[in-house]
Hints:
The protein is an alpha/beta fold. Helix content is 46%, strand content 15%. The chain has 21 helices and 14 strands. A six-stranded mixed β-sheet has the order 4-5-13-10-11-12, with helices on both faces. A five-stranded parallel β-sheet has the order 9-6-7-8-14, sandwiched between helices. β4 (82-83) and β5 (90-94) form a beta hairpin. α4 (69-76) packs across α5. The longest helix has 19 residues, at 104-122.
Amino acid sequence: MRFASTRSPERIASLREAVFQGLAPDGGLYQPADEPDLRPLFEGLAEEASFVDVASRMIRALLPEVADPARLAERAFSFEPVLRPPRGDISVLELFHGPSCAFKDFGAGFLAALMEDFLDEERRRAVVLVATSGDTGSAVAQAFSGRKNVDVVVLYPSGRVSPLQEKQLTTLGGNVVALEVLGSFDDCQRMVKEAFLDPLLRRRMTLTSANSINLGRLIPQSFYYVWAWSRLRRHHLYFCVPSGNFGNLTAGVLAWRWGLPVAGFVAATNRNDVVPEYLRTSRFRPRSSVATLSNAMDVGNPSNFERLSAIFAGSWEAMRREIAEEVVTDEETVETIRRVYEATGEILDPHGAVGYLGAERFLAKLSGPQARSARVVTLATAHPGKFVEVVERAIGKRPELPASLRRLQDLPKRSVVIENGIERLRALLLDRFG
């Protein structure tokens, strides 16, 4: 598979180039330049295939630069998704069983293992620069902590991540540096993009990203769509994706373009509804993000919209044929957590609740034969224990924390507070790594 910039399709790059550059030289995002037909692979998957088996088959089919796909899959994924038994026509795909208890462990774990291999082969060092609205930074920090030949710098918006998310970012130390930015996630993301385009920084160090703008994190996120489909292939299947920066949804759409026979997707957002507005009106209007209870989705200018637009060749009509939209308020999020808990005993996190309500609303709009055979898989993207305050408000008790989160509570926070702007970030990077 070859890769190209969303802004210059004729500019072809290898996997190694795309992974370490992060952004293309023209400021665009790398994405597959080819659309392989993987239908024989999908049809040949056994229903009981493990996630690692599915991942190794996908790596072998898509990424010939990887010398040993099975070994890479095993090193990247020490955990699996969990597909819960359906409640009516909705199945919940739990993606929070990795080290940081969020879906982004899949992409971060793969990228960390891949980069470590490439850097070891080339005998050089790199700096991973990542902006986070919550879960991305903690997943990246956990995945890269202690890896050879790589340093990690995480930018997060001060006061806009949950207390546990902040602990996951700021307690590792070692090769992980946490920068607490006086601004929003959009400010953090802009600073990262400006750093990648800064000539002085690019001369002095190897800078790369582990955000969903990095192709090496995006592609492995397609693997769990394939894994879930392999278990539910008898159904007319839709995926409902809680969405903020839209990397997770883009990964699913890529799997569909490679031949995964799914009926469509639902983009479920909180009040930061830039993409749903586009799907309704054909107008894309980025704006400042609004703080919500589902904070990892508080994105006012989602980077991966550029990839989605390129996949659909800029056609609004083509995109809205495959992607429906639902918008969920904070009040509806809390009510959904309460209602689902009282009905089933299962606890959703705020992001999973946005997806669950989006799936319910989408199903309610279907009619005829399509409705009778439809099944929606909604993605549960984070463990409810990461959002203790919101869950307790909804159900009247605190969710149990997994052991990986409990041990963080008494560790000291270590972060560097910096102003919003590329100048301070440039100076810090040059001082530490230049």
